[in-house]
Sequence to fold (184 residues):
Amino acid sequence: MKYLAFILLVWFKTNQTSQETYVCKNAKISIYSKAPLEDIDAVSTKGTSVLNAGTGDVAFSIPIKSLTFEKSLMQEHFNENYMESDKYPNATFKGKIQEKVDVSKNGVYPVTATGVLEVHGVKQNRTIPGKIIVNSGVVSLATDFNVQCKDHQIDIPQLVFKKIAETIQVKVSATYTSYKKPNS
Fold:
């Protein structure tokens, strides 16, 4: 919840309008990597997101430690050895959707968001494809993209190199609710 408050705080410093602002407090983020010895597969439903349908601005934040693995030892290694989650607790994206989406009309809108993805404390400019779905006033967003470990200085020791792939597939889905400012 504190992450959503942080995103909203940052959001309103740069965006004065909330008329077309949507928030999601339980975005689902999953990561997957196929590796020779052991696949990596984890999921979290603790992502937060803000979308301004009027300006196209979009922001996501996910607490890295909220990713849950099937094997607790893998989760421990992921947080301590690779992601250094105590030092870099969140992965974030802040950008702008390039296409105009009419949230008053039902439809599936293919979109691309251009912005900055920060993982492991390393910021990288990215253009990420996705789609926005509008169905009877409900706005949702889905995307699927890859993250290269080397792009975010995530070191993988040579000893376990074959256990972990260099590319992680990331899937994100968020269903938004219209944001109303308190006392409005």
Observations:
- The chain has two helices and nine strands.
- The mean pLDDT is 87.
